[in-house]
Amino acid sequence: MVLPKAILFDLDDTLIRAYAQPEEAWTRLLNVFAAHLDAHDAQSIDRVRVAVMEEARGVWSDQAEAAKWRLNIPGARRLSVRRGLARLGRADDALADRIADAFTELRRTEYRLYPDAHATVDALRDAGIRLALVTNGAAETQRAKIERFELAHRFHHIQIEGEFGQGKPELAVYRHALERLDVEPGEAWMVGDNFEWEVVAPQQLGMCGIWYDPFGAGVPAHAAAQPTRIIKRLAELVE
Ligand SMILES: [Mg+2]
Questions:
Q1: Which pTM value belongs to this model?
Q2: What kind of architecture, by CATH, is found in domain 6-18+112-238?
Q3: From ligand 1's centre to the CA of 87, what distance in Å?
Q4: Mind spelling out the 3-state secondary structure of the chain?
């Protein structure tokens, strides 16, 4: 495999497992609140989960709104749970906020570095490849993850939406990172799990979009582009 001059990595659900598989996490969390929710069997818990997750989809569906919420994910969760409970005729903002905050805490405690992340990034760096970490989200939240998982010193450039002022898929985001690494788009790969942000947008600039698909979800139907390559493990980049 011929490696490029530079690689841009996504952080959440690429180097670390963060927000993947929310169904399972919500079910677990809502069970903790079963008594408060008057939900005494699996179906009642699932009704709440579906209501909350559908409201969350609504909150995240508008691109401009989503860009704001990315900087305040705990706030987006509070709103989704408030709306979810209201939809079920159980409006209770105080309870909703407790549930949402507990979910935020549950997710935070369960962030995990993917087992091959450090070794892969270090091997690429040792091979002389210029490396950037390009992540959406709030500065404080993302910096805390970068510190917790010892990532800062591994990259030549780190770019966080909350610090830079723009997030993926704005093309300015990739352009700035490429400039900082001193490479042309055709000399760089973007690696990540979000099809729109890590495949479609980078390819518009002439970069290669490497899609990380650890759960084997497959290319979305009616996708606007095909990934340059699909990987299920990060280590495939250096094999
Ligand atoms: Mg991601």
A1: 0.94
A2: 3-Layer(aba) Sandwich (3.40)
A3: 30
A4: CCCCCEEEECCECCCEECCCCHHHHHHHHHHHCHHHHCCCCHHHHHHHHHHHHHHHHHHHHCHHHHHHHCCCHHHHHHHHHHHHHHHCCCCCHHHHHHHHHHHHHHHHHHCEECCCHHHHHHHHHHCCCEEEEEECCCHHHHHHHHHHCCCHHHCCEEEEHHHHCCCCCCHHHHHHHHHHHCCCHHHEEEEECCHHHHHHHHHHHCCEEEEECCCCCCCCCCCCCCCCEEECCHHHHHC
